[in-house]
């Protein structure tokens, strides 16, 4: 929290785009304590420092997994959303964005599948009938920037991710 305070005091950002969190569902299931510390405590610290600074807008990048969460990742993101909502009437403008998987990002299932195929397999698929929503990195960036530009106090942006893709089809 002290390091965040020093950085924000020094650079005086007007907008915070808070995307920091573990995003790997399986890793968070195996390390729930780390997930809570990184995602929840990190969000709490950054928001509290932001509220005491000249930041005018705080955009929290959540996950579609925060809706009716069934995993540690979903639960930690949902807890962050609930905590952040306590401050919707404070300054700065606080906006929440939710979307699904970003193709090609670090840890993306596509990268994992490519590595597994290149090394001769097998592919690790938790369940072939699972459906997931996907978007590209440019689409995700555009949506987050739009939320930051258009969003107002307390808004939650739920992006249209199109149709879900069956993981076995991917």
Please give a quick description of this structure.
This protein is an alpha/beta fold. The protein is 44% helix and 16% strand.
Mean pLDDT: 89
Rg, Å, rounded: 17 Å
**Topology pattern, helix = H, strand = E:** HEHHEHEEHEEHEE
Class inferred from helices and paired strands: alpha/beta
Tell me about the biggest sheet? Answer: 4 strands, parallel
Quaternary state reads single chain
Descriptive key words:
170 residues; alpha/beta; two-stranded parallel ribbon; 8 strands
Describe it:
It is a single chain. Helices cover 44% and strands 16% of the residues. With 170 residues, it is α/β, with parallel strands linked by helices. The strands form 3 sheets. The chain has a 4-stranded parallel sheet with strand order 1-2-3-7, sandwiched between helices. α3 packs parallel to α4. The longest helix has 20 residues, at 32-51. The mean pLDDT is 89.
Layout of strands and helices, then pairs:
Elements: H1 2-11, E1 15-18, H2 25-30, H3 32-51, E2 57-61, H4 72-85, E3 93-98, E4 101-103, H5 109-118, E5 131-132, E6 134-136, H6 137-150, E7 156-158, E8 165-166
Parallel strand pairs: 1-2, 2-3, 3-7, 4-6
Antiparallel strand pairs: 5-8
